[in-house]
TrEMBL record, chain A:
PANTHER family: DIPEPTIDE TRANSPORT SYSTEM PERMEASE PROTEIN DPPB-RELATED. Residues 110-319 form the ABC transmembrane type-1 domain. CDD domains: TM_PBP2. The keyword Coiled coil does not apply. It is found in: Cell membrane. This is ABC transporter permease.
Automatic annotation (TrEMBL), chain B:
The keyword Lipid biosynthesis does not apply. The lineage of its organism: Bacteria, Bacillati, Actinomycetota, Actinomycetes, Kitasatosporales. It comes from the Bacteria. This is Peptide ABC transporter permease. It is found in: Cell membrane.
């Protein structure tokens, strides 16, 4: 088990390093010049050269990349002379926009995105799995067909359309919910939930539809297995056949999907956050892009990659705990 | 892997089909597929809707000339300057002159814009799908058929690509690249991240095919790897590939729309559905039709290709092989 864990962690480090390298190289190959952007419109060539030197952009790419990597683990000093910035562990650089450490910016926004992601995830798991399993158990029936038609239609609606419709129906027309404004969970849990309910629903509807389809087909496949027939023949109550024997094995592919989706959402649901103006990581990323704030963009990309990879490892570990065959 | 003794049944894998001269599906399978698609009400409707949308996209310049407006023509007569540029008349200015109404402020014809938007959206979606399918199928076949080191390298590459935060990465690339053809860039950027899904499906299929009798027979006859891959393996995985390809299209359409919605897609004045919806958000209360028209087109396009893909998968790949 420990060897398996070690192997996985090594793999994760490799994947993150590769993603970091690719991101870094792509951003340096592209034409945008951060020094020119930071220096402003009226910038003399001498001043530009100075800015480039300060930002380390006069170094070769591999050197910049090396410095960046070292900075993540050991911190580093940005620039030189009297204006040098001390960037402590874990150093992802400073925002060009407001000279704040990227790490602090990310950690500042992360609770918001995490609130959005986890709340929506709870909602879509309940809705999606509920609908999917119900449909699978009544395969071919009226309820199954109704649920699946609804799921296909809902999955085809873009999240921004659903969001606007919900906003119109629940906020403007009936006033059932407040216009979303983020309130930290620790300040006021009730108002936190009330404010996030709308974004949660908008995001969850899309995923619930996809999960309903996935869990239905997975459940149907499982329920056709011989061991289910055996369980039934043994005289087990229907409920325990479905829950203990069917659901447990049918949920493995759904679990994989869930890990990926949640990981990707943790680092910001860019579209949902920008529609509702929720100040999460996705919003930070979007704003940083508008201002060509490269260190922030790079930071969010790395964070997102980290979450996806980490979610994968967690899911794999769960498998390994449940199923000993995976370990070898 | 042992050589299966049970003769292959089901339309998904029909070894006799792999004879010379049939690079894709055999005629009989085509006919069955068509009959089952056409026989089901849902998939028939989806097929018609998808065909109509493609037709609209292809004939966009013609259609907009028929409507009398080009997508970039301003029509100051269609809007009311005293109402902040809202369209004259009910339902966003729908009438004989402007079939689907006009854009607020500019008065550009919505029919012309939505039809040209179909062109942009579908062009990008189809081209990106083509990239994904060609790359994914090649990588999957190579990994599954050759195995060993090729498989290890390609599988690692698939894992790596799947670990990329694709949407965030796409947005970043689209907004950093400046002086590039937007449509081409977008196609490539969307296409780059899609291939591992189909590659996994194809790899699994190729893995099970490489020790089948007819492949062994071809090898014994002295066929080289290229010939075996194109004549024996490829025809036998074409069913799942076709189904999976159709299922990829709605995702590509949505991604294109999402990127355009966020303002990093095609640049105005070139219309695209996502971009139109993004502009309409500000008017969703005062001029709801402006919001509804492109949304309906986007919805119908995604829905039609999803239903079609589902139906094709049920017909061509009944056992699964799902990613």
């Amino acid at each position: 088990m420990i060897a398996y864990l070690a192997r996985r962690c090594l793999g994760v480090a490799g994947v993150l390093l590769a993603i970091c390298a690719v991101t870094f190289v792509i951003f340096h190959l592209l034409p945008a010049d951060p020094a020119a952007a930071a220096c402003g419109k009226t910038c003399s060539p001498e001043r530009l050269a100075e800015v480039r030197r300060f930002m380390g952009l006069d170094q070769p790419v591999w050197r910049q990349f090396g410095d960046y990597l070292v900075g993540i683990f050991a911190g580093r000093e940005l620039g030189s002379g009297p204006h040098a910035l001390q960037c402590g562990f874990p150093c992802l650089g400073y925002s060009y926009e407001n000279a704040l450490p990227v790490w602090d910016l990310l950690m500042d926004r992360l609770p918001v995105s995490a609130s959005l992601a986890f709340g929506a995830a709870c909602l879509w798991l309940v809705l999606g799995l509920g609908a999917g399993v119900t449909a699978a158990l009544r395969k071919g029936g009226l309820l199954d067909r109704t649920l699946m038609v609804t799921a296909v239609a809902t999955a085809s609606l873009p999240v921004y359309f659903t969001a606007m419709m919900l906003l119109y129906a629940l906020v403007r027309l009936t006033g059932l919910l407040p216009y979303p404004a983020y309130v930290p969970l620790t300040d006021d849990p009730v108002s936190w939930a009330a404010n996030l309910l709308l974004p949660w629903t908008a995001l969850a509807l899309l995923y619930a539809a996809m999960y309903a389809r996935q869990s239905r087909s997975s459940m149907i496949e499982t329920m056709a297995q011989p061991y289910i027939r055996t369980a039934r023949a043994k005289g087990l109550p229907a409920r325990s056949v479905v829950v203990k024997h069917g659901l447990r094995s049918a949920m493995t592919p759904v679990l994989t999907l869930f890990g990926m989706d949640l990981g990707a959402l943790l680092a910001g649901a860019v579209i949902t956050e920008s529609i509702f103006g929720i100040p999460g990581v996705g919003r930070l990323f979007y704003d940083a892009l508008q201002r060509s704030d490269q260190p922030v963009v790079l930071g969010v990309t790395l964070l997102a990659a980290f979450f996806i990879v980490a979610a994968n490892v967690v899911i794999d570990l769960l498998y390994a705990v449940v199923d000993p065959r995976v370990r070898n | 892997m042992s050589i299966p003794t049970v003769p292959a049944t089901g339309p998904g894998d029909a070894p006799p089909a792999a004879g010379p001269g049939s690079p894709v599906l055999p005629d009989a399978l085509w006919r069955t597929t068509w009959r089952r698609l056409w026989g089901d009400r849902g998939s028939r409707t989806a097929l018609i809707a998808a065909a109509l949308l493609i037709l609209v996209a292809l004939t966009a310049p013609l259609l907009s000339r028929l409507g009398g407006w080009s997508p970039t023509d301003f029509d100051p007569d269609a809007i009311d300057p005293y109402l902040g540029g809202l369209p004259h008349g009910a339902l966003g200015g729908i009438g004989a002159d402007h079939w689907l109404g006009v854009e607020p402020v500019t008065g550009r014809d919505l029919f012309a814009r939505v039809v040209h938007g179909a062109q942009v959206s579908l062009l990008i979606a189809f081209a990106a799908t083509a990239i994904v399918v060609v790359t994914g199928t090649s990588a999957g076949i190579a990994a599954g058929y050759f195995g060993g080191r090729v498989d290890t390298v390609l599988s690692r590459l698939m894992d790596l690509t799947m670990s990329f935060p694709s949407l965030i990465f796409m947005i970043a690339m689209m907004s950093v690249a400046q002086d590039v053809n937007r449509v081409v860039l977008m196609t490539v950027v969307i296409g780059v991240f899609g291939w591992p899904g189909i590659a996994r499906v194809v790899r699994a299929e190729a893995l099970s095919l490489r020790h089948r009798e007819f492949v062994e027979a071809a090898r014994a006859c002295g066929s080289g790897p290229w010939r075996i891959l194109t004549r024996q393996v490829l025809p036998n995985i074409s069913g799942p590939v076709i189904a999976y390809t159709t299922l990829l299209i709605p995702g590509m359409i949505s991604t294109e729309a999402a990127l355009s919605f966020l303002g990093v897609g095609v640049r105005p004045p070139t219309p695209s559905w996502g971009q139109m919806i993004a502009e309409a958000v500000a008017y969703y209360e005062t001029d709801p039709m402006y919001f509804v028209v492109p949304s309906v087109f986007l919805f119908v396009a995604v829905l039609a290709f999803t239903v079609l893909g589902d139906a094709l998968r049920d017909i061509l790949d009944p056992q699964g092989g799902r990613p």
